[in-house]
Amino acid sequence: MRQSQLFGKTRKDISQDEKSINAELLTKAGFIEKQMAGVYNYLPLGLRTYRKIENIIREEINAIGGQEMLMPVLQAKELWQITGRWQEMEPIMYQFTDHHGSAIGLGTTHEEVVVDIVKKHLNSYKDLPLYLYQIQTKFRDEKRAKSGLLRGREFGMKDLYSFHQDEKDLEEYYQRARRAYLKIFERLGLEAFSVEASGGAISRKISHEFMVQTEAGEDNTILCAACGWAQNKEIAKVKAGAKCPSCGKVLREAKTVEAGNIFNLGTEYSKKIGLRFIAKDGQQKDVVMGCYGIGLGRAMGTIVETSHDADGIIWTKTTTPYHVHLLNLSKNVKTGEQVYDKLTKAGWEVLYDDRDISFGKKLKDADLIGICYQLIISDRKEELELVSRRDHKKKLLNYDQVVKELERFYA
């Protein structure tokens, strides 16, 4: 992509309403643009990173048997009344009456909808277990939409729902999903750990949140650095400074952001909506359920919060919008074009800064955008200069050596 043609420019000044690091840097670097409080446009750079996050999540959920589908945003009041959540979710659910006089809600979550769908297709134990997921937009009327992509009113989410014959089968899958989540965050370049938490408005049972330590976090976690034991402070019976109930080491408290969560739903929704199956003994039983969510924009915002410096964003290797940011600081335009053509034809994702601006501005913008590698062409050096945005190391290399370095890093 030639930067001269890229939609979305870097900016020096942004709205003072943006209090979070992720919103500030993503806006200045041309990844997102604020539409209103808690609602953002994803510009081309931002969408590239968003899609990479989406694809990593999709690959890992497919690997544990998930089947992707898509459910509607518009949801009927009658369905939510069956579970009693129309009134319960009213503080955060956008609810309105359409032109036909029907009460409609915008999807905050999809337990009711997915159970209603499965009810029409599931008959016996032979249909179980079943794992359905979607990657779709959610709407929540958040009162604290001041954390950029970490807490939005409109946001993308992957929500997976599992259906089982009994609690034992659910627990086995719950642990598979837990491991898959840790792998997702590892692939995204995030150091996440699972934390026991309350189920909130989703489930009456204990759930697990996947936390990433950052000062931008809105949660407080009591954790043990020695063995990894952790609980959300809201439900923890021990405090920082006390002994870990698992290993006896001293606990500490840390600010964290919730990057994902998983819930044991039991029969809470299936029983109310009438999702039953015929067991092997011929008896009808309620389906046991679990649900598992990850916010895509939240993951993107968390990466920025935990991976940046004074100059800008530092993308992880799986979420960088392009593999290489090619900067031609030479007066010889032809050289830049030749390197760009060779790299792109070889299959590398390249953002080529071909703009007619000062060299200093090109370098400053490159640091702000945060692509993992900058490849610099200059008149002063015969070789190409490869600069790592992550560790700031610089190497003078010929073209073939550059390719080997990229292959090694992105392998």
Distance between the termini: 22 Å
Give helix % range: 25-40%
Class derived from helix and strand content: alpha+beta
Number of DSSP strand runs: 23
User: Overall pLDDT, averaged?
Assistant: 94
SS field, number of helical segments:
11
Biggest sheet, open or closed, and with what strands and sense? 9 strands, mixed
Supply the number of structural domains. 2
What can you tell me about this protein's structure?
The protein is elongated, with a radius of gyration of 24 Å. Helices cover 30% and strands 29% of the residues. The mean pLDDT is 94. With 411 residues, it is α+β, with helices and mostly antiparallel strands. Strands 3, 7, 8, 9, 10, 11, 12, 13 and 16 form a nine-stranded mixed beta sheet that branches. Strands 20-19-21-22-23 form a five-stranded mixed beta sheet, sandwiched between helices. A three-stranded antiparallel beta sheet has the order 4-6-5. It contains eleven helices and 23 strands. The chain folds into two domains: 307 residues, Bira Bifunctional Protein, Domain 2 (BirA Bifunctional Protein, domain 2); 89 residues, 3-Layer(aba) Sandwich (Rossmann fold), CATH 3.40.50. Helix 1 packs across helix 8.
